[in-house]
Automatic annotation (TrEMBL), chains A, B:
This is tRNA pseudouridine synthase A. It comes from the Bacteria. The active site is at D52. Formation of pseudouridine at positions 38, 39 and 40 in the anticodon stem and loop of transfer RNAs. CDD domains: PseudoU_synth_EcTruA (cd02570). It comes from Geoanaerobacter pelophilus. GO terms for molecular function: RNA binding; tRNA pseudouridine(38-40) synthase activity. The keyword tRNA processing applies. Homodimer. It catalyses: uridine(38/39/40) in tRNA = pseudouridine(38/39/40) in tRNA.
Length: 254, 254
């Protein structure tokens, strides 16, 4: 038995999200069906996590086991010939059988792109949230700093979230300005459903002067989803990278 | 009578190009129909030039005349409410009646984006050309330098081009590497049909080692379309900006 780890890039625009579900086509489903055609056996993909409908990924890790003795290239070039242009396998490698992308993930990096132009941008419409009005980026940076650390993020949890605990560790939240665009990079050990999008919606309200940076502290103290900001729309969000800490480094030891 | 100059951004993916034509929907047509709904009079848009089907624009200038006394905001926010999300008016201003975007254009800036990754990129598929294999960017830069100046670009003219002369002035061709992407910026006084795309296709053949940089000199000396490279696909190309030299500066003089 082999355990193969794929790294997948996708444009989430036309999908109902990563995970197989009854309504709409999922990215996981497209990949599993293509792998089954390639391998002539049933395949189950295990990812590091899910992404919502419309959310993108530059590098989603997902693994599967197979008994077939097929060269790794079949899982990049070969698989890419079987899936639509808005999904692509960027890398495939063999990993130890005990490797599980969800369990071994030590850090997840998401980025959210805001477009602050006066008028909407056709060329960035599928990959950013258009926010009119000027944002106080200084105030947003102060607010962003309050997220860092281990906190109860219950105020930043979307409906339908099945997580047992709402305690999460956020490592960093950085804001970078680039012309009409403001990019918010969020790194953390794990996230609740919609958490980055609600954090972003709340930061935008700070930027627009509708709440002050210190309101984040209250939201982290007293769980209250209705007191937090709106859920930013999905198309601005991308999963950038998932790190596996020392797993692969330790694997090389005798 | 007023002469209004619009600056338009569009994602060309779903259009048959800028210019109204019998097969497929043109960007010009979408805008003219929206303007006619707004103004209740017939409108004819005059652009700085055309773009092919699938080519994008960050800032296409196009002007029209109207007798209506409507505030300029109607031609940005108002018009954007009447057109689809893949087209947007970024700016509207009143210009002298004698201003014509084609005649007054002094410099056009196009950029072409190449994706050099081993596997295709879902997130950039609509805005780049995926070229497999490593490119010799040094050789491409030497070749690019040969384009600069006033030359007969007949070897770089697409079929159906109706230009009377094939002499054109290219001001600069610069290549910038950014991770897996190589951006080619071309600035010139004017271009023949498909000229930037054929220049790009030829530069890629230089990069792949299939022709040497000096072959550009032969192509500029002896008109022969079949000796030049392939026409690079449209989705990698964007019109970045059109400059009008001193027209508006001189207009401010008494």
């Amino acid at each position: 038995m082999r355990n193969i780890l794929l790294t997948i890039e996708y444009d989430g625009t036309n999908y109902a999200g990563w995970q197989v579900q009854p309504n709409g086509l999922a990215i996981q489903q497209v990949l599993e069906e293509a792998l089954e055609r390639l391998l002539k056996e049933q395949v189950r993909l295990y990812s590091s996590g899910r992404t919502d409908a419309g959310v993108h990924a530059m590098a989603m890790p997902a693994s599967f086991t197979t008994t077939r003795d097929i060269p790794l290239k079949a899982f990049t070039a070969g698989l890419n010939g079987l899936i639509p242009p808005d999904i692509a396998v960027k890398d495939a490698r063999e990993v130890p059988l005990e490797f599980n992308p969800r369990r071994e993930a030590t850090l997840k990096h998401y980025c959210y792109s805001l477009h602050l132009g006066q008028n909407r941008s056709p060329l960035r419409r599928l990959y950013s949230w258009h926010v009119r009005g000027s944002l106080d980026v200084g105030a947003m940076r102060i607010a962003a700093g309050h997220f860092v650390g281990e906190h109860d993020f219950a105020s930043f949890r979307g409906t339908g979230c099945a997580a047992k605990t709402t305690i999460r560790v956020v490592k960093s939240v950085t804001l970078s300005e680039n012309g009409e665009f403001l990019q918010i990079d969020v790194k953390g050990v794990g996230f609740l459903r919609n958490m980055v999008r609600i954090m972003t919606g709340t930061l935008v309200e700070v930027g627009l002067g509708r709440r002050n940076p210190e309101s984040i502290l209250d939201l982290l103290r007293v769980p209250d989803r209705s007191a937090a900001g709106v859920t930013a729309p999905p198309q601005g969000l991308s999963l950038v990278e998932v790190s596996f800490g020392s797993f692969f480094a330790e694997d090389k030891k005798p």
